[in-house]
Amino acid sequence: CEPGLGASVMYNLLYNEPTKLMLLAGCSTVCTTVAEAAKMWNLVVLCYGASSPALSDRNRFPTLFRTHPSATVHNPTRIKLMRKFGWSRVAILQEAEEVFISTVEDLESRCMEAGIEIVTRQSFLSDPTDAVRNLRRQDARVIVGLFYVVAARRVLCEVYKQQLYGRSNVWFFIGWYEDDWFVNNLEKEGIDCTAEQMREAAEGHLTTEALMWNQNLQERTISEMTSEQFRVRLNDALRNEGYDIDNKRYPEGYQEAPLAYDAVWSVALGTSLNTMFIKRRVLFDIVSISDSNEIEGQFNFLNEEIKKRTKCDEEHFKDLKKKLSYFKSEYKSCWMKAE
């Protein structure tokens, strides 16, 4: 998830043959950077691993589509859990990334509506030490943590050092981290807590997660496979690549695999749809535009038609998701799992 590298790769793709009509991107930080720039060329950007609520802004990202639900889908479940257990005062710890900032804004609004007080909101760039210490000073007991998994390990180590865990504390973490995330890569990332200390600090935490797979294991999608058949094929391919998935050692991004698969199908179906559209319309003089001095000519000759069709294509894409995807629900309403 390196937005600078993503932008560099995008420009290399744009200024080298063959001409590109569409870009696929992964996580929120890269997708945000790519989609903001790609609109200048009217390039469609399709993201399969981007959950930032900010990406729903059509004025800012007019050519963006995604198969991943927005991160705000977690917040109603968090609120329900808080109400169920009678937690009326909560704290928030977030990494300073737009995806988490916009998620927190939605969570604060929902907490206000539910009569839940936000006692403190702490953020950090890379080192969470001071932020976790401030939580302890504020006597935070129920804490919602929003950060990527590498930062989560640094946070959890500091939680252990500050003794901000145990029967008096409850932590909400994001559910899409890999299994045993709190003991993975400790030496590689310079985490100065042992695996046993990390397990101790992680004991009893709660997670919320959007279910990415079709829960009807017998239902066939447009690929003529069920979600279970796709899972079996994916796992077999990973075993052949040397991944020890039988011991739950999955590659990074495994949870988004069905969304990436849906994205590829979306590209195929969208390309087919627009090919039929182009064949039906009367083309204007493409040569006169592509021969002009404007660099936009390579990509932009259907500019006005694309603008007219954006809303129509967006609705068509949503309809396709019901036939297409393993993750079937709309962004604002999907199956959630709490653990």
From TrEMBL:
GO terms for molecular function: G protein-coupled GABA receptor activity. The keyword Transmembrane applies. Residues 1-269 form the Receptor ligand binding region domain. It is found in: Membrane. Its main location: membrane. Pfam families: ANF_receptor. This is Receptor ligand binding region domain-containing protein.
